[in-house]
Amino acid sequence: MSMIAAYIIFPVVLALGIVRKYRQSQWGTCTDFRSLQGKVFVVTGANSGLGKETVKGLAQREARVILACRNIDNAKAVISEIRRSISTGELIPMTLDLASLKSVENFAESLIRDFPEIHALINNAGVSVPVADGEKTADGFEINFGVNHLGHFLLTNRLLPTLKNSAPSRIVIVSSLLHERGTIDFDNLNGEKGWPKKRMNPAYSNSKLANAYFCVELASRLKKDDVSNVDVVAVCPGFCYTQLFRYSNIRWWQYILFAPIAFFFMRSAKQGAQNILHCAVSDEILGKSGEFFRDCKPYKSKHNFDPQVSIKLWETSEQMVSKK
Question: What is the DSSP string of 1-48?
Fold first, then answer.
């Protein structure tokens, strides 16, 4: 048995460990640790996963961070947790439910009133709810599209004047590589015609594509308005171990089958948040407004972005949120 361990098991484990370490080295790390004292950052979905790790990174850099969370008690609990290891920065909990346009309006109004300067908005919050559940937002929108896109679309537009007045400032839109599997069907934004049955949560992929289109169109509009000191970028944090897929009905045996893939490809929330932090604080994104980032560097999407779709999605989103 000892011979088997010495000549087979140990070399295999060592090789797997080396491959894992190599992959980690390709994921990128935010290397900008300058002080952000006096700068105000807003992070949606800040009480868990990528949002929490992003808040930690900003707090370590002495930033003033608004934790925009659906449950204020969870936000306060996370602040207490962070304070056990990080004493710098200022952490402020606020209530924001992106599944309710009224909540978005109330949050934006309070934020603008209490914080005359906002230097970065990080649209991080997201859900991946199986389309079979048929879940809707408080305003009747399909839950993935409503939370991941429409809620952030309204929030960003409400805060945009303050972001312009606080420039240089940034808007970081957390998308996903799954946007490349998405489609923008204006006759099926809310699943009116149903969903493809062979695709893994097509509504989530569509919402992530909407995020990417929002980034492209917002950057274009800022450029047309001659606003060069507000940068907007989209970012894929990578395939991360978070609570995003908590609504998925995954069986125990599927976890076993998935384990090898997870070992080689899945990142921790802290590793994924490095991409978000890079886009939020690094000077390397200056002049790259409208671009997509992955592994802390620009990424060329396989999706062929159509300028007409970009404009129409913006106008349609405006109509959808204004009607409610």
Answer: -HHHIIIIIHHHHHHHHHHHHHHHHTS---------TT-EEEEETTTS
